[in-house]
Design goal:
The chain has 185 residues and is an alpha/beta fold. Helix content is 21%, strand content 36%. It has a six-stranded mixed sheet with strand order 5-4-3-6-7-8, sandwiched between helices. Strands 1-2-10-9 form a four-stranded antiparallel sheet. Helix 1 packs across helix 2. The longest helix has 19 residues. It is globular.
Length: 185
């Protein structure tokens, strides 16, 4: 690789190029962790609700920086097929226990159109959550078309398709520690 060449990976039939190194991701996580710690330091034990599969790396790194007592739960929703959102959100694994009156912090890998967030907000509101906030590693403000506030976006990005750090292309690439963007060749 030449001095100016970026690292590349091939997943299935697509090529992706390095976009954001892990060290930069960690700096952004540190910033939102400080905000979350400040906002929840005097609150009764909130539930940190990770959205599987994509949020697992972000949630693990975020949780290492959380300084208050909390519970951790996971739900699994899906709305992507290949590189496109199907528009249909399916809840695959549900909530455990009573959340009535509890503070909930949803941890997402990426928020684009907001379909998954809207689905979760409706579900959590049906279960009478006390408060609900959203933390996401990546936020696509140009794509987002829902009314719920994304309170803790670690990084705003454009509409490019990315993989790595928990995000996948047809189930490949989640294990990459950096973020890669699709190359249109």
């Amino acid at each position: 690789m030449g001095l100016n060449a970026k690292a590349r990976v091939t997943l299935h039939d697509k090529t992706f190029e390095l976009m954001i190194p892990h060290e930069e991701l960690d700096r952004h996580i540190e910033v939102i962790a400080k905000r979350i710690n400040q906002d929840y330091k005097d609150r009764p034990t909130p539930i940190i609700l990770g959205i599987l599969n994509g949020s697992f790396m972000f949630m693990a790194d975020l949780m290492k920086k959380i300084e208050f007592n909390c519970e951790i739960q996971f739900v699994k929703v899906a709305s992507y097929t290949g590189t496109d959102s199907s528009g249909c959100v399916k809840q695959l694994i549900g909530l455990n226990g009573c959340i009535e009156g509890r503070d909930i912090i949803i941890v997402e890998d990426i928020v684009d159109t907001g379909g998954s967030i809207e689905h979760l907000m409706n579900l959590l509101n049906e279960h009478k959550a006390g408060s609900i906030a959203v933390a996401t590693m990546f936020y696509k403000p140009e794509s987002y078309n829902k009314s719920y506030e994304i309170k803790y976006p670690a990084m705003n990005i454009g509409n490019e398709f990315i993989v790595g750090y928990g995000l996948d292309y047809d189930q490949l690439g989640r294990n990459l520690k950096d973020i890669f963007v699709i190359v249109n060749e």
